[in-house]
Specification:
This protein is α+β, with helices and mostly antiparallel strands. It is built from 2 helices and 2 strands; from the N terminus they run E-H-E-H.
Length: 89
């Protein structure tokens, strides 16, 4: 793609497991919400493709960050993304 963005629409029908981790171009693991991943868009694409399988989330420990707080944040956000995006289909 000339704009540099990747289009995964054609791959969604072949997706059997999704492992989520927030990251940036320069850091493999960052705090929840601080990365480049658009989770709402990803969940919407999966729903449109009829995805009804597993989503897992990797919340790695970061120095100076409350790991349990990050896990609670993801626990609250993930259902929001799923419910918000399934109601649009």
């Amino acid at each position: 793609n000339p704009s540099g963005s990747k289009n995964f629409d054609r791959l969604m029908k072949y997706t059997y497991h999704v492992h989520l981790r927030d990251s940036t171009k320069t850091e493999l693991l960052v705090r929840i919400g601080q990365g480049d991943v658009e989770y709402g868009r990803l969940v919407n694409m999966l729903n449109k493709a009829g995805y009804d399988r597993t989503l897992s989330v990797h919340v790695g420990e970061l120095e100076g960050v409350d790991h349990m707080a990050e896990m609670r944040k993801m626990r609250l956000l993930l259902p929001h993304w799923i419910l918000h995006n399934t109601s649009q289909i």
